[in-house]
Amino acid sequence: MEFKNVTVIKEANVYFDGKVTSRTVLFESGEKKTLGFMLAGEYEFNTDAEEIMEVLGGDMSVMLPGEAEYTLYSKGQSYVVPANSSFKMIVEKYVDYCCSYKND
């Protein structure tokens, strides 16, 4: 899949000492997405807006707010993270992902 008529922010978003990186993609409609890559590790992220995480490659185990166990998500799967929350993930090898932010 590809995005057309977008603006890409050249500077990377870098987290966890470079183990997680992404680039921001802005659409004419005001929609915002990030395309990113995660190396093996355990991570915890906080959200401002609702996020839809789509796994483009690799696997990640995710514990969403209110859950007591991790769920494995693989290529072609996605999940929703509520706004103003935090979630945990474990990446065994790598994950290629697309994160879409709810536009209020």
Mean pLDDT: 96
How widely separated are the two ends? 25 Å
Number of domains: 1
Helix tally?
0
> Architecture, CATH level 2?
Sandwich
Overall body shape: globular
The portion of residues assigned to helices is under 10%
Strand content: over 45%
Number of beta-strand segments: 8
Radius of gyration: 13 Å
If you consult CATH, what is the topology? Jelly Rolls
Q: Could you state the order of secondary-structure elements as H and E?
A: EEEEEEEE
CATH class: Mainly Beta
Biggest sheet character: 8 strands, antiparallel
Question: Which structural class is indicated by helix and strand composition?
Answer: mainly beta
CATH superfamily membership: Jelly Rolls
Contiguous low-pLDDT stretches (5 residues minimum) are none
Outline the structure in words:
The chain has no helices and 8 strands. By secondary structure, it is mainly beta. Strands 1, 2, 3, 4, 5, 6, 7 and 8 form an 8-stranded antiparallel β-sheet that branches. β5 and β6 form a beta hairpin. The radius of gyration is 13 Å and the shape is globular. The two termini are 25 Å apart.
